[in-house]
């Protein structure tokens, strides 16, 4: 109570004699009587001069008061200890609730970080595989001496090779399950600080981590545990530019940490050679063991259509186990061939055929040929169904094999229900999921956890990619054209003519009501590119419908985050979507119809801006020829050249500059095209921009960094070398954090860049605004190699930073 007017008003209204300013609150939680002496005016003139006198008066009054209280009155009161217990319980309850809230917040942040790292839901995939496991399956691997040695030894690598369809991924899921069962506290672990720091460092700048950043964090996380297991499945399926790099980097970490590696792949020579370089390694062939095949068959034989399937159990298991030749996938397909047999004789004849097919199969090539023959036979069974079932199966396989991403069951159902050319969706035309699976005769499965419908094995995708003609139907075009037409028809439905949703609630309701809308909006252009030219002539009709186009763009540009304030994307013209997908002919047709080339979306971006970002140089050239402004500026102050430079599109950058684009255009963050190119490591674009007159030491206004500072921070050695050769200032201090290029490179552990900067004359001990030197940053982040290099180059080990009052080595 420090307001005199409020004090006087309350005193007059409530007949208050005095105000207690400190201890009276205790009475709410503790059985007591507060006795205080009046010592000041209880307002802004509060002072301590009378506190001593007031305390003595209160003590004398309390003593006199105690003489007036009889002992039995005291005994009737609740003991203080009991009151304290109650207070303590209340405090603990509050503490527990606070911890629950904090844990919920931390859990939500963990989910956000994991989604930021990768959108792939590994848990659902693992759950789907394990849920299909028969008791005892994979026991031969878990019980083998090589596996036990790998599991118990230190720094050990187990390389498991097997032909396609042998069950490598399934066995990997079993190993994961076995290892997780031994981690009693797995459900209570939170994300390590290194992962959080990586997320926050990039989230604030809206950037993505480099491979080196991820590897460095991985090393830090592994160092937190006494022993770590990494499982790499299907290494042979990695892209060619990535496959040799990933194992090499993992081996480097293994050399410094107690890391065990489990690897599966096809038995290719290059992969074998990579893993034979490990000092401690074992090789193990993965093949479908007879006992695993038998276990799988035991659970399914009772479902056969013959009167007494038990009498055939032994024959079926022996014939299929032998014919499968170590391929679990082939065993699945062979059993599928028995499911339409209705007599014992038919089954026995099929088993005889299986044995005949197995004769002479020994090499990997012959086994793959047997798998191909099984696919061919399955397609014959599909085509032998009733016309309606055959047509449904073909449509299912078209969607699954052409889809740009895995489809959920509801998405696929809606795709199959589309009637080309109709303006309304027919809910009564939705096929049943069980029917969808059944008509595909074992080629398709559904993951129960994720509800993803997929081919049972990736080799089927390879099979259909080479044989698209198998999916042609007399009543529909080729697969890509069928899917493209279905997407365009879906997006053209009358229900979307209301345009973009004005609220988040209505937007989510639309997605739930129309499951295929998200996929169709994001990927129709990808299918159009691969479809027949005929359909491209019909797309402009859809793009001229402004409301439908804007509805599709809203969902296509939705980032997937649940937020209340939707940043609604409304284009108002059909030219933006085809430029986004690089559809030159469709863009040409729309422009010839008179649609404006420079219409802006709500981000202020023109079609040329999108084409430049996506590296569609032919589309960009067309737009410029039709009058598009080369230096159009969006709401972020960015030009087409800025977008092309950020994404490293040299041909588009060259075109824009030739057509008069401003080389040193500045966006709202003060960033030039050269800053964007340097920040993302695009050496060729950096070279081109400098040759065309870009300012080498341009400084952005958001962080106060130069191109050299950004390149150094992100570890792009070639760009750093080029900028220095072109005269970039080595010791320029940024205005936000006060760091130099050397400081940034040291903080992030880029030894090669640190060495290059020092060799070119960078000051080793320059102090930033936090009083830290490059050595302080390198030491604080655990970059041992950089610390050693800096000390060798004369960095002071006893410098003291002003923020934490520490030396680099303290």
Automatic annotation (TrEMBL):
Taxonomic lineage is: Eukaryota, Fungi, Dikarya, Ascomycota, Pezizomycotina
Superkingdom, according to UniProt?
Eukaryota
**Where does the chain cross the membrane?**
none
This protein is called NACHT domain-containing protein
GO function term, MF aspect, one: catalytic activity
Q: Which InterPro entries match?
A: Ankyrin_rpt, Ankyrin_rpt-contain_sf, GPIID_WHD, NPHP3-like_N, Nucleoside_phosphorylase_sf, P-loop_NTPase
Q: Which SUPFAM superfamilies match?
A: Ankyrin repeat, P-loop containing nucleoside triphosphate hydrolases, Purine and uridine phosphorylases
**Where is each GPI inositol-deacylase winged helix domain found?**
389-464
Q: Which residues form a coiled coil?
A: 84-111
Q: Where is the Nephrocystin 3-like N-terminal domain?
A: 136-179, 180-266
Question: GO BP, one example?
Answer: nucleoside metabolic process
Gene Ontology annotations for the cellular component aspect, listed alphabetically: nucleus
Keyword vocabulary terms for this entry:
ANK repeat, Coiled coil, Repeat
Q: What ranges cover the ANK repeats?
A: 603-635, 636-668, 669-701, 703-735, 737-769, 770-802
Q: Give the organism the record lists.
A: Endocarpon pusillum
